[in-house]
Amino acid sequence: MTTAERGVPDGHRTASRFFTDPVRDYAAQHPGQPISVLQAGCLASLADLGIGQLERNGFNVSVTAVDADQPLAVRVLRESRVAYDDVITGDLRTVPIPQRSYDVVYCALLLERVRHVELVLDRLNSALKPGGLLLVRTGDRYCAAAVLDRMLPHAARKAVWSCYRPGTPGPFTPVYEKAVSEEGISSYALLRGLVIAARGRELTSPESPGGLSSSVRVTRSAIRRLSGGRFDDGHDELLYVIRKPLDRFARILLPARSPLGSRPRYRAGLSSSMHSSTAGEARGGARSDRSVARRAGQLACLDSFR
Question: How does pLDDT run across 71-85, given as a tens digit for each residue?
Answer without folding.
Answer: 888 888 887 777 888
